[in-house]
Amino acid sequence: MTMQTPAHKEKFGRAEWLLLLATLCLVVVGVAFISSARSPAEAAEDYPVYKQFYFKQLLFCLLGLTGAVVINLLDYHSWARWSLVLYWACIGILLLVPLIGVSAGGATRWINLGLFNFQPSELAKLAFIFMLASFLARPDQELRLVANFWKAIGMMLLPFAIILKEPDLGSALIFIPVGLVMMFVGGIPLSFLAKLVGGASLLIALVLVDVLFAPKALQFIQLETYQKQRLLVYFGLDFAPPNATEAERRAARQLQEEKSYQVRQALISVGSGGLRGKGWRQGSQTALGYLPPGAAHNDFIFSVIAEEKGFIGSTTVLVLYGVILFAGIRIASQARDRLGKLLAVGVVTLLFSHVFINIGMNIRLMPVTGVPLPLLSYGGTSVIVSLIAIGILHNVHLYRRAY
Amino acid sequence: MIVFDQLKKNDLPLRVLTLGVLAGLLILLGGLWWVQIISYHHHADNERSQSYRTVRIPAIRGKILDRNGQVLAENRPSYDINLYIEELRPQFEEEFRRIRPLRQSTNPPVFWKRWLGAETPKAVPARLTVQQRATLNAQARFNVAQRVVGEVGQTLSVTIPFVEKEFSTHYANLRALPMPIVENLDSPQLARFLENAALPPSVDLETEPLRYYPNGQLAAHLLGHLVKDVSSKADEVSSVNYRLTDYRGNLGLERAFDEELRGKAGVKSVLVNNLGYRESENIWFPTEPGKNLILTIDLPLQKAAEEALYKEVGPDVAGAIIVMDANNGDIFALASAPTFDPNDYIPGISTAKMAEYNDPKTKPTRNRATQENYRPGSVFKVVTALAGLQKGVINERNLHEPFYNPGFFKLGRMTIDDEAAKGDYTFERAFIKSSNTYFIHYGLEAGFAAVQKAGMEFQFGQAMSLPTRQNTAGNFPTPAWIEKMKVEQGLRWQEGDTANLCIGQGYLDVTPLQIAVMIAAIANGGTMVQPRVVDRIVLQDGAAEDAEPRVFPYETRGRAEFAPEHLALIRKVMRADVAVSAAGPDQGTGYRAEVPGMNICAKTGTAENKAGGRVVRKDVWFASFAPYEAPKYVVIVMVENGVFGGTTAAPVAKKIYQAIQKREQSGDFPARRQVAQR
Hints:
The complex is a heterodimer of chains A (403) and B (678).
Chain A: H1 7-14, H2 17-45, H3 53-73, H4 76-80, H5 83-100, E1 102-104, E2 107-112, E3 117-118, H6 120-136, H7 140-143, H8 146-165, H9 169-186, H10 190-212, H11 225-234, H12 246-259, H13 261-273, H14 284-287, H15 301-333, H16 338-362, H17 380-398
Antiparallel strand pairs in A: 1-2, 2-3
Helix pairs in contact in A: 2-3, 2-15, 3-17, 5-6, 6-8, 6-9, 6-16, 6-17, 8-9, 9-16, 13-15, 15-16, 15-17, 16-17
Chain B: H1 2-5, H2 12-38, H3 40-51, E1 52-57, E2 64-65, E3 71-83, H4 89-99, E4 102-105, H5 111-115, E5 122-125, H6 130-156, H7 164-173, E6 179-182, H8 187-195, E7 203-212, H9 220-223, E8 226-229, E9 242-243, E10 246-249, H10 252-256, H11 258-262, E11 266-272, E12 278-285, E13 292-295, H12 299-313, E14 319-325, E15 331-337, H13 351-357, H14 381-391, E16 403-405, E17 408-411, E18 414-417, E19 423-425, H15 427-432, H16 436-446, H17 448-457, H18 479-489, H19 495-502, H20 512-524, E20 527-529, E21 534-538, E22 550-551, E23 556-559, H21 564-579, E24 601-611, E25 614-626, E26 633-639, H22 645-666
Parallel strand pairs in B: 1-9, 2-13
Antiparallel strand pairs in B: 1-11, 2-3, 3-6, 3-7, 4-5, 8-10, 11-12, 13-21, 14-15, 14-26, 16-19, 17-18, 20-23, 21-22, 24-25, 25-26
Helix pairs in contact in B: 4-6, 12-22, 14-16, 14-17, 16-19
C-alpha cells in the first residue's frame, strides 16, 4: 500500500483484504449451514438442486457480490449524488407494498419478483444511510441548526413509520440506532442527541409499561397481538390477565408455551451444542424439526451453527463479524471526507445492529423480531443488500485519498 | 489496541462507536459462553428429554426342559403386523389437503398478473380454527390408517377390526411406537403376507417371542402359566415412557422361578421428532435373557402317566399321579386332573376359558398331587401295621396266627364294616385283603400313641415344600393338633377316632405327595426324601453345559425310624398285594397292576367321604413302589370318585409301570445323575 507500487499493483494492493476475506468466509458459512438447516426438509421432498435453498442462496451471493463490485467501480461521491432519488424511490416502493405486496404470517413485507420475494425495507436501510450521510456531510455550523437536526430525525422516522406499519418491528427499529450513531459521528451536537435519546427512552419505557402491565382500558398503544405476545415471552410474563378465570389461565398458559416454543427451542439448540457442537448436518434439533423448519434457515440460522459447531463455531462467527465491523470503523476513520466516514459508520452500525439483535434473539438476550443475520440468514434481499453494504464500505476504503 | 491505534487521536465519536461495538460483541460472547458452556448440561438434558422416548423391552423368557433336555415350555415367534405411523405422515398431509374445505379466492400471487387482467377466481383452502384443524387432521389420519389396514386385511383375507378410538388413543399416547394391527398370524396368513409385494411400506411384519407349551396340557400344574404384567423388577430402569407387553409367572414353576426365567428387561430409546413421530431407535440397556429350568421330570413318562389316567379312568377323571425316584426324591412325573392348557393364557385368556378354569367345583388349576387333601383310606394301614409291629402287638408269634374277622368291627355303639369277607386272617392276608377289623383291632391294641407316633415318623401334617408353592400340609392328629382342637372346638379324642385313624379315615388328610414320600421311605429303608422337581438352572444360550449352573442338591427330610425288619415285612406284604393274579385266598387287592418283571409292591386304598351319614364320594388309591428287590420307583395313583383302589387306580399304575419298563429298555432312563442315598 505504498505510493511507489505500479498503478495496477497499487489498485490491487489497495483492496481491504481482511474485510473481503471475512465477508467471503461468512458467505460460505451461510451457504453451508443453510444447506444443513434445510437438509431434513429437502431430503424428504427430493428437491432438484436449483430449488434447494443453499443453491438459491449461492445465486443471491453472486448477485450481491456483483453488486458490490459494481459499487466499487465508481467513487462513492458519484453514487451519493443519487441518494435523494434512491431514498424517495424506496419510500415510494414501501408505500406500494401494502397494495401489491404478498403477505405471510399476517404481515405484508415482500414484493414477488418471481425469482425471489423482494423486501423493500432492506433496500430502504441502504437508501437511508446514503441519504443521511449526504445530508450530514454539510458544513459543521449548519449541523448545529435545530432545523437540520429535526430534518435528520424526519428522514429517519419516515421509513421507520412506514415499515412499522407493515408490520415489521425489527426492521423498523434498525433505523433508530443507525440514524442516531450517524448523527452522533457526523457532529450533531450532543445536547440534541442526549435530549432525544433521553426522551425516547422515557417514551419506550412508558410504552412497555402500558403494553405489558396496564389494564385493557388504559392501553393507549395497540400493538399487534403477536408483537405483544413476543414482548411478554421476552420478559417472561404471564399471558393471562390477573383477573382471568382458571380456564382462561390454562388456555393462556398453553398459548404461552406455543409462543415461547421458538425461543425455547433456539436456546436448547444453542445450548446443546456445547463446546464443539454436534457436527455439520448432525444437529438433532434441526434434523428432528424442533427448531422450526420455517425459521431455521433464516432468522434462526445462528442456532443451527451454534448447535452443530458449538461454542467454537459461534465464537468464530462472532470474530468474523468483529473483523468486518472493526475494519469498517478503521475505514471510517481513514475516510477522505465526512460523507465517506458517515457512509462507513452507517454500514457498520447497520451490520452491528442486525448481528446484535439476531444473535441476541437466539440466546434470549433480545426479544424475537424478524431481523436476519447479515450474510448468513437465507433471504435474497438481505444477503444482496448486506453484500452491497460491504461494497460501499470497501468503496470508501478504495477512494479514501483525494485525486 | 490495534483498532484504536489506527484511529485518529482526536476522533472521539469513532472511539465511542468502537467501544460500543466491542461491548456488544463481548456481551454476545458472554451470553454464548453462558448458554453453551455454563448451562450446557441443562440444555442438553432438555434436548434429550424432548427428543427421546424410552421403551422397556422384556427379555426372552427361559425355557423349561425335562431331565433329558426335551422342551416343556419355550418361546415361539408370534408374527404380528405393525403399523408404522410415522411412515404415513405424507399421506396424512395429503389426505388433510383433500378433505379440508375450500373457499373461493380472488387473490392472485403476483401483482402484475392482476394488472394484466389475468385475475382468475380460484379455490383456496378455507381458514380453520385450531380446533377445526385438529379434528380434521385426526380424521385424515384415521382415514389413511383405515385404508392401509383395509389393504392388509384384503391381503390376508380377514377382516381386521380397526376402531377409531383405539387408533386415536395409540396416536395420542404411543405415537413413537408402531401400532399392532394383526397379532399372531397363522401360517397361511403369514404366507399370504410375505408373498404380497405390493403392501404399503408403512406396515411391517414383526416377530415377538411368545410363550409356548408344545405339549399343551401336559404337566400344566407343575409348569403353571403366565399372565400379562406391567411392573418392573427392582434392579431395572423403572422410569420408562412405554413398556412392551411382558408376562409374569402366575402359577407353578413359572411363578416360583419367575425371577430366573424372566431375565432382565432392557431399555431402548426411540428418537422422536418435534411432532412425536419415530425417527430412529437405539438400545440403551440390552436385555439379559432368562435362564433355562431343567426339571427332574421325564417327558415320556409324564405323557404315559397322564395318558394312563385319562384312558383307564375316563376323560372327566379327577385325580393325581406321582412317579418318583424312591431313593432320591426326583419326581419323574406329576400329573393332576382335570387340567388346563397354559397356552390359553397367551397372549390373554378368554372369558369363557377363564370361567372354565376357575370353576369352583372342578378346580382345574388346582394341583391335586400336592395341593389337595384326601383321606388315605386303607393306604394308611401300612402305618397302623408299623405301629403294631413297633409296639410288639403284632409279632413273630401272632404274625401267622389266624385272627377271626366277623366282617365288621364293633366299638361301643359304632359298627365299622369290613370289605374283607369274614373268616380267619393272618397279618399278610389281612394286609392284602385290606381287612378293617384286623387293623382296627391291632391298632387299638397298640394304642393311639403308637399309631400317632408312626404317623408322625412319616411327617403327616407337614407340607412337602415343593418350589411350586402348591403345598398343603394336610392334617394329622399330632398332640399339638389335638390340644388345639380341644381348645378351639372342645374335641375329646376317643377310641372311635383311633379306630377311624387306623383305617385312614377320620381326622386325617394327606396329599398324594405325602403318600409318595412315605412309600419311598418304606421302599428305601427309612429315608424321608425331599421331593425334587427342579434339577438345575442354566444359562439360556449356554445350552445344558453351563459354567456355573445352579444345581439343586438332593435333600432328605430326615428318617422315619422303624426297624429294618419291620419295613422289610411291609415291603414283603406289599409285594404280596400285587403278586398273585389268580383269584383265591392269596389274591391281593392290587393284582390288577401286576407287570411281569417289575415286581411291583403296593397298598390300595378306598377312602369314603361321607356327608350326612351317606357315602358321597370314594377316593381311591394305589400307592406302590418297584421293583421289590431293589426299589427304584414310587408310583402313586389317586382318583377321586373311584370304585375301589384295586379296580380304578391299579390299572392306571400298571400302564405307568409298563411305560417305566419301556423307558428302562430304551436305555436312557432313569437318571443322568444318580446319587445313592440309601
